[in-house]
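Dear colleagues,

For the upcoming journal club I promised to circulate an example of a predicted protein-ligand complex. I picked one with fructose -6-phosphate because it came up in last month's discussion. The inputs are reproduced below in full, followed by the predicted structure.
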Amino acid sequence: MRVIIEQDYDSMSKKAAGFVAEIVRNKPDCVLGLATGSTPIGLYKELIRMHKEEGLDFARVTTFNLDEYYGLAPAHDQSYHYFMHDNLFNYINVLPAKINVPSGTAPDVNGACAHYEEMIEEAGGIDIQVLGIGGDGHIAFNEPGSSLASRTHLVTLDEGTIKDNARFFEKEEDVPHLAITMGVGTSLEAQKCLVLVNGAKKANIIAEAVEGPITSQITSSALQMHPDTVVIVDEEASTAFKRREFYLHSEKILAELLKK
Ligand code: F6R
């Protein structure tokens, strides 16, 4: 895994936007895998800026979101459908028909999950998957113990995740206990994975995910098996890496090489 340490949230977000924008420019009909939560908001702000000021064009881009709370309709202000429109889609020129978020209200859950996987395949697969990680090391909503080969499925959220996400709801009891999520195996099939992590609270878990053993107890550790994962962290989230100095050194050498 390539680990990039940026000074703060802002530079982490800008660095991440550079990776996404490069793919959008080189492949205008690319497929973006997107995440919700606090972490990627700065990335989305920067993509909106690039669209408005630099003409970054999303007209032919297709998007697939990682997950959705089960039981929340798209219009619910805590649904991930709503979040994505509010933080990105309403401000760029992506076509509504090319936006995909798992349905939180499909009566046939298994059928809807299988169909989501088919749609990703029909779109040609995901070119770049943006990921955040949870306090328990989850990617998407693949909680500890999820199969590392899992595909899109219905999951029960961990107590810790419910508590973490309660900050977005009026009260903790309002947080849904179920969600539809892409599986770990789904993310592992993306051409590139871009993991964003900020804040001191996540320093230990990202160090375990990157440098510890691969385990279903920390589903983000499965990304060690992915051939092209880039982890971008801010200073605060970088403090527990054993090989922190090496990551800094390696990026410095890469930057010098690219200058030549
Ligand atoms: C969101 C998602 C989750 C979050 C993770 C971190 O679509 O799949 O895995 O990325 O819970 O959330 P934040 O960024 O709010 O700390």
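Two points we might discuss: The chain has one domain: 2-259. Residues 214 and 221 are 5 Å apart (CA to CA).

See you all on Thursday,
B. R.
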